[in-house]
TrEMBL record:
Residues 42-165 form the Cytochrome P460 domain. The lineage of its organism: Bacteria, Pseudomonadati, Pseudomonadota, Gammaproteobacteria, Lysobacterales. Residues 1-21 form the signal peptide. This is Cytochrome P460 family protein. Keywords: Signal. InterPro entries: Cytochrome_P460, Cytochrome_P460_sp. It comes from Coralloluteibacterium stylophorae.
Length: 169
């Protein structure tokens, strides 16, 4: 009887270890600041609530979700704009592949980027109060890519406090 219990315990533990290892890999960039803004991957961000999903068309062709810290979710819920200092938004992105179980559906494939926006009006006064970080495989990408972040947001959504994502209904 004891070998059966040990096998069952091990079988229950393996998925937890795999999930834990995936979380460690996903958070591997913590402590590594992105160039230009010095933004890091926030601790525990993968447990934050969903703000909204998105499917990006070509040329990006990605599945994305945006997660928000409690300050962000409170601001979304209350309709507070501009977002208050302390707001943090994290966008996870993957390639999408056909579902092996349901042909018309797409599911996440390989991870592509994790992007972070941090609201700190004093630190990032020149960019509408926002600092940006873009990470691939847990490491910040080069400075040139970070220099494009604010320009893109400023050109398209300056009137919404530089935030593309709206709270999903």
């Amino acid at each position: 009887m004891k070998p059966i219990l040990a096998a069952l315990s091990l079988a229950a533990l393996v998925p937890c270890l795999v999930a834990g290892a995936a979380a460690v890999r996903a958070d591997a960039g913590r402590g590594r600041a992105a160039p230009v803004y010095g933004v890091e991957l926030p601790e525990g961000y993968r447990q934050w609530p969903l703000v909204a999903p998105a499917q990006e068309a070509a040329p990006l062709d990605e599945l994305r979700v945006v997660l928000g810290n409690p300050v962000a979710l409170r601001a979304y819920g209350d309709g507070t704009r501009p977002f208050p200092d302390g707001t943090v938004l994290v966008k996870l992105a993957w390639t999408h592949v056909p579902s092996p179980d349901f042909e018309p559906a797409s599911v996440p494939g390989a991870a592509t980027t994790v992007q972070v926006m941090v609201k700190d009006s004093r630190r990032y006064g020149d960019t509408g109060g926002w600092g940006y970080g873009r990470f691939v495989a847990g490491r910040p990408v080069d400075e040139a890519q970070h220099r494009t972040c604010h320009a893109c947001h400023a050109a398209r959504v300056a009137d919404r406090d530089y935030v593309f994502t709206r709270l999903a209904p």
